[in-house]
Amino acid sequence: MSAAAPALPAAPATPSAPGTLYLVPAPLDFGCYTQTPLQDALPDATLRTAARLTHWIGENAKSTRAYLKRVDALHPLALALQEQHITELPREVHKKGDHGGKGAAVWDARPLLAPALAGHDVGLVSEAGMPAVADPGSSVVRAAHDLGIRVVPLVGPVSLLLALAASGLNGQNFAFVGYVPQDSDERAQRIRALEALALKTGQTQLFIETPYRNAALLQALLQTLHPNTRLSVSSGLTLTSSATRSQSVQQWRQKPGGPDKNTPAVFAIGA
């Protein structure tokens, strides 16, 4: 009787191909009194992609779930809302940014991408607009590139570009400078420096503020800028109440007014 043939060794497991990191835009109505219908602010293809994702990296798990609940009303989620895998960015990243500049948080984003390395598609989302643009997330995107993970930005609203387009200021040469200082003296100094740069180079300067400080920033701009400098303020972008006012500082002073303390706004100055 012949001996049984020896068992063949098991084939080595084939490593999973990494998933894709999708940059998923969110509507611009976070924290506003009213919300824009999701299908009016985001393309259907973006919403369908968001609906099939089950792994997320976001600023805040609660706001991410609130966004996914709105998506689910249009396109059923691939995984129940309570079962979605949501990882929050570290708190210091929210406060200091995560691009490695002066004062930015220093941390390794690669562990957040473990699901992508295991073959899952992952969504990066912020509370409003495009993640990693005027919001945290650039370190996650950079880590994805370093790990060989495909990065795909989806189509959606970007408040900075909407405000720039609506301002009538130079759209060929512009810069986003983030927030200006809160201290009144430092803020005035920074505004003067940005104005000088805008007038010398023709480069439009864009910046933002926490909504409840909108009025304080507008007042500082009107007190500090030269009368002939052009100031544009866009608020409630993509909302039915969306408004942009772009006039000389002198005209602003003659007829004051601006965004309320609950509506996000983008400020821009130029020649």
Description:
The protein has ten helices and ten strands. The chain has two domains: 134 residues, Tetrapyrrole methylase, N-terminal domain (Cobalt-precorrin-4 Transmethylase, domain 1, 3-Layer(aba) Sandwich), CATH 3.40.1010.10; 112 residues, Tetrapyrrole methylase, C-terminal domain (Methyltransferase, Cobalt-precorrin-4 Transmethylase, Domain 2), CATH 3.30.950.10. The chain is an alpha/beta fold and 271 residues long. The chain is elongated, with a radius of gyration of 23 Å. It has a five-stranded parallel beta sheet, covered by helices on one side. A five-stranded mixed beta sheet has the order 6-7-10-8-9.
What would you call the structural class? alpha/beta
Strand order of the largest sheet: 3-2-4-1-5
Instruction: List the secondary-structure elements in sequence, H or E.
Output: EHHEHEHHEHEHEHEHEEHE
Quickly name the level 1 CATH class of the largest domain: Alpha Beta
Round the mean pLDDT to the nearest integer and report it.
90
Strand elements, count:
10
Give the topology.
Elements: E1 20-24, H1 38-41, H2 44-52, E2 55-58, H3 61-72, E3 85-88, H4 91-96, H5 114-117, E4 122-125, H6 138-146, E5 150-153, H7 159-167, E6 174-179, H8 184-201, E7 204-208, H9 214-224, E8 230-235, E9 243-248, H10 249-254, E10 265-270
Parallel strand pairs: 1-4, 1-5, 2-3, 2-4, 6-7
Antiparallel strand pairs: 7-10, 8-9, 8-10
Please outline what is shown here.
The chain is of the alpha/beta class.
